[in-house]
Write a structure and sequence with these properties.
By secondary structure, this protein is of the alpha/beta class. The protein folds into two domains: 172 residues, Periplasmic binding protein-like II (D-Maltodextrin-Binding Protein, domain 2, 3-Layer(aba) Sandwich), CATH 3.40.190; 131 residues, D-Maltodextrin-Binding Protein, domain 2, CATH 3.40.190.10. Strand 1 and strand 2 form a beta hairpin.
């Protein structure tokens, strides 16, 4: 009997050969991965530069050690400060770090621009990492122009701002224009809008939607209190010292709310577009790494379900994989909703070009305060 003009025996032989080939490829891939892990163990450790969060500093080394029996030395700090230190070390011929987890401005404007990164895409080999069906966007989300160096592992809805409801009623601020009411002068706090980070992103959002004149009213005339410490911002909010706060740490505010403090997020504000960000949700592979095999194991692991979920929980950031039960540990407001249009503050062109232009404008405006 023939199957499509091919004898049953020939058809069966072809299927058998295909299965043998597939099995051999799978076994070969497993063997290559095992060899990579063995080489990583021989290197002794990996050095990862990442955010300053205590939970990340604790959980990543512990989980990586448990999974691979490889020590993970974690160097936490603000993105630009850590990048500056790494750049200084490398200029002196010292190559101490293997991989970096940072925000896009740090990765794009420092590590990528200064050619400190190795291609990341070829290093990703785990089947569950390469399987497009496991990712919300249908595949790996590389954000750099070549789609090769910087992988996005987080995508969060940004809070517009927070209020202390003992001092500010929710219906008092329905439009961004309500924020420049004279009664709120000296009662607003925010991150520094002249430095790379959430404060500058806020300024860029307002500048793009409202123009320079309004930016001056909000950021200069309203006399906001500036702090680079997100916990300090949350503390001012909770105490009511500054009852309207931008850029406070979401996890700090959530914890305060659990304890019964009168704090509330305000998101649906006319004139202030809904936005997404990645926080410290970008990864890169440093070139001339002292532990190259361990670095490859790490980037595969952090992009896997296990690694990404551990990082997502520690940072309270929304993972870009779709096989993680994010709703079990994140608030619904933090998770992007299908069909809703968001302004992505981690778009490469926005961060590298537009935001840099707005930063120069902000420096001039803030210098006049």
């Amino acid at each position: 009997m023939n199957v499509g003009g091919i004898s049953r025996a020939a058809f069966a032989a072809g299927v058998y050969a295909a299965l043998i080939c597939w099995t051999s490829l799978a076994q070969g891939a497993d063997q290559a991965w095992d060899q990579l892990v063995a080489a990583a163990r021989a290197e002794g450790k990996i050095v990862v530069v990442g955010p300053p969060d205590a939970d990340v500093r604790r959980e990543l080394p512990r989980a990586f050690k448990k999974r691979f029996d490889i020590d993970l030395e974690y160097i936490g700090g603000r993105g630009r400060s850590s990048a500056a230190r790494i750049a200084t070390e490398r200029a002196a011929g010292h190559y101490t770090a293997d991989a970096v987890i940072a925000g896009l401005s740090t990765l794009a404007i420092v590590y990528y621009r200064e050619k400190m990164l190795d291609p990341l895409k070829p290093a990703l080999v785990l089947p569950e990492v390469l399987d497009g069906s496991k990712w919300k966007r249908g595949g790996l989300w590389f954000v750099d122009p070549e789609k090769n160096y910087v992988l996005r592992i987080s995508n969060n809805v940004q809070r517009s701002f927070y209020i202390n409801t003992a001092k500010v009623k929710a219906d008092e601020i329905r439009s961004i224009k309500d924020l420049v009411d004279p009664k709120w002068r000296g009662k607003i706090a925010m991150d520094d809008p002249t430095l790379s980070g959430s404060g500058l992103t806020l300024a860029a959002r307002v500048y793009i939607s409202q123009g320079e004149g309004f930016v001056k009213k909000l950021f200069v005339d309203q006399k906001p209190r500036i702090s680079r410490d997100r916990r300090q911002l949350a503390d001012w909010l909770v105490r009511g010292t500054y009852p309207i706060v931008f850029n406070a740490g979401d996890d700090d505010v959530a914890e305060a709310r659990k304890q019964g403090f009168p704090v509330k997020e305000v998101d649906d504000v006319i004139g202030l577009p809904l936005t997404t960000s990645a926080g410290f949700g970008m990864i890169g592979l440093l070139n001339r790494a002292p532990h190259p095999s361990a670095a490859k194991v790490f980037v595969n692991w952090i992009a896997s379900k296990e690694g990404m979920e551990i990082y997502s929980r520690a940072r309270a950031e929304v993972p870009t994989r779709n096989d993680i039960d994010e709703a079990s540990y994140l608030t619904p407001e933090a998770i992007p909703k299908p069909g809703v249009e968001y302004f992505d503050t981690y778009d490469w062109d926005f961060v590298v070009t537009k935001r840099a232009q707005i930063r120069r404008i902000m420096k001039k405006l803030m210098a006049k305060k």
